[in-house]
Each structure stands twice: as structure tokens, then as C-alpha cells.
Amino acid sequence: MIKSRIALAGALLAAAGAANAAGFTVTPTITTDYDFRGLTQTDEDPAFQLGATYTFENGFYLGAWGSNVDFPGADADIELDAYAGFAGGDAAESFAYDVGAVLYAYPGSDDFEEVIELYAGITKGMFNGKVWFSPDNYDDTSFYTEGNVTVPLPKNFSIVGHVGYSFGDYWKNGSGEYLDYSVGVNYTISNITLNAKYVDTDIDGADTDRFIFTVSTTLPWASE
């Protein structure tokens, strides 16, 4: 597969971003486009995604996540990720932290290899930053760094912003390093979250700007 034609697909559930109560959670999601670091993984078509995470009382967690994918000219139909990490701290009182690893895989595909990324992140209040590193991304190293902000608003609304940068030998030898960004709004109805966001990148000559709408929930639902 030509590197310049694809971005490594994958996503990590928010359940792995901070220490949570011990237990098993399942997160189903429906979205109009599987967006990963500013690039579509479903040729701008809808996706159904399902993740499951088990969090231990000591902050260690492990889980799996899957989605349909569609890359023009490639044979992959499904992405299946596995991840494990450790989260702790308190973002309200001081800061929360999260470290771990994720394996991206495309079962049945001859065009994609399995890739491992390591990650480390810090959250303080409404701000979150994270760095991702792959030592062997199709025989090259790659990095991704991101910053995120969630601004609470009245009546269960919040503004969410994101900026990220993909760099390293994988991108230098392929389609080139690039910046991605998004801004959107979340609205929570009981235990269901609705999200609408605008996404774009600074890739020259690429038509990457689009609006994406997502509905998700995490089970079991919290008691009222």
C-alpha cells in the first residue's frame, strides 16, 4: 500500500483517558464519517464502532475497539484495535495522567500491517495533551502530538477543540507531515452524547474539510 494514500487508522476510547471506577464498560458509536487525525477512514461514509474496556481498581485498563473502514483501492473492511494502559491522578485537583499502548490491526487484509503505538498524556481541568509514538510504522518511526480542550456550557452543552500534528520518518518519506484540527459542540441527553464538529487539515491540495455528526453512549448507564 502506498503510504501517501492512507493514514494509519485507529481510535482509543475516552474510557482509557483517565482513571475511572473499576469495572467493565461498552461504548457503541454511530458516526457519519470515521475521522482519524483529520483524515477519513471510511471514504466519508458512515461507521458503526464498538469498544469494550475493563478498568481495574489500581488504574490499569485493557480493551478492544472495532470499526468498519473503507480505503479506496485497498482490501481492508474492518479495523480491530487492542489496547492496554495505566491511568491515574485527578484532573480537577491536580492533573491526571495516562500511559499505554495500542495495536492497530485489519483482519483479512493483505494491504495493511499491524502497527503498535505507545502513548502518554496529561489532563488538567478542561485541557488535555497527548503524544503518540510508533517505533515501526511500515518500517519507519512516526509521531503524533495533540492538544484538546473541552469548555463546559450551560444546559448540557460543551465546546470541544482539537489540534494535532503528524510527523516523523513515516510522514517525511510518504505524503508529508501535516497539521489537523477540529472544533465542535457536544450535547448530552441523559447518558447519550451528540457531537457535531468541523474537521480539516493543512495538507496542500487535499479536500479534507467536512462536518461530522456522532452519537455515542457508554454502558452500563450511570444511575440518575
Q: What's the arrangement of secondary structure elements?
A:
Elements: E1 23-31, E2 35-36, E3 39-40, E4 47-55, E5 60-68, E6 78-89, E7 96-105, E8 115-124, E9 127-137, E10 140-152, E11 157-167, H1 169-172, E12 178-189, E13 192-201, E14 210-217
Antiparallel strand pairs: 1-4, 1-14, 2-3, 4-5, 5-6, 6-7, 7-8, 8-9, 9-10, 10-11, 11-12, 12-13, 13-14
CATH homologous superfamily assignment: monomeric porin ompg
Number of helical runs?
A: 1
Alpha carbon gyration radius: 17 Å
Task: Name the shape in a single word.
Answer: globular
Strand coverage percent:
over 45%
Show unreliable segments.
1-19
The first-to-last residue Cα distance is 49 Å
The overall pLDDT average reads: 91
Biggest sheet: strand arrangement: 1-4-5-6-7-8-9-10-11-12-13-14
Strand tally is 14
CATH class: Mainly Beta
Order of helices and strands: EEEEEEEEEEEHEEE
CATH architecture descriptor: Beta Barrel
List the domain count as a whole number: 1
**Sheet having the most strands:** 12 strands, antiparallel, barrel
CATH structural fold name: Porin
What's the helical proportion of residues? under 10%
Sheet/helix structural class: mainly beta
Provide a descriptive summary of the structure in words.
There is one protein chain. The chain is mainly beta. The chain has one helix at residues 169-172; strands at residues 23-31, 35-36, 39-40, 47-55, 60-68, 78-89, 96-105, 115-124, 127-137, 140-152, 157-167, 178-189, 192-201, 210-217. The chain has one domain (3-216): monomeric porin ompg (Porin). It is built from 1 helix and 14 strands, in the order βββββββββββαβββ. The strands form 2 sheets. Strands 1-4-5-6-7-8-9-10-11-12-13-14 form a 12-stranded antiparallel β-barrel. A two-stranded antiparallel sheet has the order 2-3. A hairpin with a 2-residue loop joins strand 8 and strand 9 (127-137). The N and C termini lie far apart (49 Å).
